[in-house]
Give the backbone structure.
Amino acid sequence: MDDQLSEFDLRPQPTVERPLLGLTILVVEDSRYASEAIRLMSLRSGARLRRADCFASAERHLNIYCPTIAIIDHGLPDGSGIDLIRRIATSRNRLPIILGTSGAEREAAEREAMQAGADGFIPKPIQTVAAFQAAILSHLPDTVRPVGPRDAPIIVVDPDPIALREDLSHAMDLLASDRPPVEYLRKFLIGIARAVDDIGMERRAQKMTAHPAPSDYAALREFLSTRIQAVPSVV
């Protein structure tokens, strides 16, 4: 790990106010809302953020850039985040820090991430800037952490509601496909529901079966349509 982290010697020195200054984070996340939350927390913390919304996009990023940290969601539209964690963890140029994340079945997701080679796991939703910073700082060597006492900001970020609308619209598009990816959609909706504390949506998603009836699809589309309409517009 020391050799892998030698790049930290060249990065800007972190400060108490911006403890992640100089770090580059690759977040592999299909939810725009979750990505926006991480972007805001990264901005407050001093880190640079790159985003990939699928397995293929993540591979393209990794072929071009060399982030310090990868935060990888388990449910991706074109593959498994666990497979991506395993690929990165076993690659010749392993990233210094690999973190799994998931909003659905979090205990099982954490076990899978660690077994695949992740250094840690961040359950979604990430509630505060302080929790986000702590999750990353705990995996950094002492030599590159900010020196001195740090009053971590207990700030809850407020992502743009347009990102939530895009997530819900994406779910609607999946439902309209010839063969909706039910298991992927179930976990996607659970993650969104927990991010916005929507108990009704989470219950509906949890009850999704492997082979929903046409009436079930229709009911879910109607439900999501009401949720989209309820998302406040940005003036």
The radius of gyration is 18 Å.
